[in-house]
Amino acid sequence: MSDLTKLDLATARDGLAKGDFSAVELTQAYLKSMEVHRDLNAFITEVPELAIERAKEADHNRTHKQAGVLEGIPLGIKDLFCTEGILTTAASHILDGFTPPYESTVTANLKAAGAITIGKTNLDEFAMGSSNETSYYGGVHNPWKKHGDPRPLVPGGSSGGSAAAVAAHMCAGATGTDTGGSIRQPAAFCGIVGMKPTYGRCSRWGTIAFASSLDQAGPMTRTVRDSAILLSVMAGHDPKDSTSADMPVPDFEAALSGDIKGLRIGIPAEYRIDGLNAEIAALWDQGIAWLKAAGAEVIDIALPHTKYALPTYYIVAPAEASSNLARYDGVRFGLRVEGETLDDMYSKTRAAGFGDEVKRRIMIGTYALSAGYYDAYYLKAQKVRQLIAQDFVAAFDGVDAILTPTAPTSAFALGEKSDDPIAMYLNDVFTVPASLAGLPGISVPAGLSSEGLPLGLQLLTKRWDEETLFRVAGVLEDAAAFPGLAANGEG
Amino acid sequence: MSFLIKGETGDWEVVIGLEVHAQVISNAKLFSGSPTDFGAEPNSQVSFVDAAMPGMLPVVNEVCVEQAVRTGLGLKAHINKRSVFARKNYFYADLPQGYQISQFELPIVGEGTLVLDLPEGETREVGIERLHLEQDAGKSIHDLHPSKSFIDLNRSGVALMEVVSKPDMRSPEEAGAYLRKLRSIVRYLGTCDGNMDEGSMRCDANVSVRPVGEDGLRTRCEIKNVNSVRFVMQAIEHEARRHVDVYESGGEITQETRLYDPSKGETRPMRSKEMAHDYRYFPDPDLLPLVFDDAYVEQIRATLPELPDEKKERFMTDFGLTPYDASVLVVERETANYFEDVAKGRDAKAAANWVISNLFGALNKKGVSITDSPVTAENLGKLIDLITDNTISGRIAKDVFEIMVEEGKDPETIVEEKGLKQITDTGPIEAAIDQVMADNPDKVSDYRGGKDKLIGWFVGQVMKQTGGKANPGMLNELLKKKLAP
Q1: What value of ipTM does the predicted structure carry?
Q2: Chain A: nearest CA to B17, how far in angstroms?
Q3: What's this model's pTM, rounded to 2 decimal places?
């Protein structure tokens, strides 16, 4: 039998259903791949024994006709999701030894559908970063390399481990979380499909919080169809999350009709930023041409407050993070560094437990919320956020979806931007506006740079319209016919 | 009623505002399903949410919301149909999340009023500024280990209503009356049990002073966490005196938080200005704004009981009670109900007297509440009936009541068993009078000689003869007739 890891999730699912191979065989194949690619550092924790045990159960369930939608599908789980009985770190030193006695709702949904966790994927510490270099467990390497350049590249972030693991066929799919682009940007860097659902579509319960009003779990897969399949299982109302929407989950896979005739696609002028990489600009034009060719109508739109999105995001997200991360105090779990007094213990624990980027954001957030600055920063940012959201509402009056690039560059070398936080924050310039507005977005791998690196295009739709999002993304994917890493002779 | 502090430079008036933390009666915490029983084993009532484990999220307990609205209605306050939960960020070991979920800019209840019942039956209105919902913190225990502190998170996340008054009070007595009235109202509503000694009601007092005649407010100090009405009153008095002394010696009062030490009878600073927290409030992104409609509020309003003020009015109009008696009887719902049972079909003033002077005294002495009273309302009513129909005298009734308190029996049985029925036949009374007169001829002649006051002595002797059972009116009448020269 050919390498089972070459199959996408949908094909593997169908193969399992037909009995072409067993869940144990599929899982073993992925575990093997995980071993082969260990140098990428995509996983913080591997759970091969648990995975095989679960695969046996899956095979048992299938023979007894009790198979769930994802029965026997091996997945990577971003190490921001709490997993019962499995070390959960958020890639931070401060959560040393933390093994939750509970399972996040998203991963519980996946489990209930029969999916198998094969490991916890690496990420930027507390999901703060765009290159995966802030992980306490070290950076992840992008499985892609520039033509003729052996230097390792970053996979993007924060869901860099998940992106690399999916791209390098170490799992059939993975979960990510996206706060300002943490699914879409690494998906673009690694040449996979990364999808951020509407805020409220997936429960945040049991997912370690970065910025509560922005965080949203989503699927990372090799195809748009896989993305739709995975999201259908991850999503759903959860009474344990007050911001989880009480609405039915559509059959996203069924939305992939391949037909976008008559759909109106918006192209926002504001995303054509100064000095936009020429290759990316060209790919964007190519994307427009593909969608036109498929029968869509392309319309120029305005999102006038776009230029304020990044600064707004870098007030709101750190403000919430500074508060959300206050619970890591050395008192109840994780790392504790003893001190003379309670305050001293806090200081020492947090000084040792948090990395520089996390500290930077806590400081920014604390400052933005402090007396005298609250109105000038946080409150103002919330007002601008409203304006940005209204831009989209107005735009979606005239269009069904918006097409933009996902990231301003392709993957860069490790260490290339790590000394320049502002340059690093610019990675999210195209993903952040939709995050602030709570919209669904997807990054579809659409082409290769002249250096042979993946480039992504981003699609956005209005809230709760993931069906249109997947439909257009499917058409874009077909048109782009992205080769994927395996076809590149890797994996 | 005025309360002025005499200073060397003149009279000063005290300005008081109170913030009361009232624990909501509910089976679960404000944002988790953990129970809230008092006195449970440390850390036995803590969920993952209360312990702020990673990934945990708050979900508002609707019972607590309903209780807050109910309390707001009881305070005749404006109910805000849209309110917002905010995070108040600060570090402390007994605050697991590193922030307290509270309400800041948009509380669930806005302005209202509370009527104080002052001595002599006077009343006075105090403004309520707001009522908001918030989580309680856990408890740090510092004296179980030489170098470590222990944390009990049982209370962490328990729902509190913070009721903030306007700075409308002008004396320690008014502050005391405010607390008693607030406690009375929340107990009527069943929204807080008001037990200050169990910490389910705690008070912070904001105190400032100003020379009589001065407008505007001077710098205030906040006395934190006082847990009895008496201590609140004492603390305010001490603090006000301190302010006057500081001002008169040319000093300045700085805004600060202080603690009251009842054993020393003084307040002292809790944390200095340098340590003052910048709390960093912002709307909690884990919780949606609390939104409800008029129908919801009206549905709660429809279930409100008759509250103390209304009851007091009714007792005055329907029963002709004095404002003072009425206000005393309505403090506790149980007392008011008891009184109404006693008064039903009887002389209400007599009933009020019996409840206020006799029953309260007896309960106090025994240290029991009215719900555990050995004398039931039915029996007390019967006792009053026995007086009214002349079966016993008022004096005998007091003895019967004593026995009722001790033995819990009904008065008819006691009167029967002890043979305490009033003698209303002239025969036995006359015989007793004759006997006393025959035994004391000298007293008889003294009386007839003009010593009128001896009548009392004769009454006493005859009563002794009859075991106190002679009808006093009849006895007086007959005695006067027989002693007449």
Answers
A1: 0.95
A2: 24
A3: 0.91
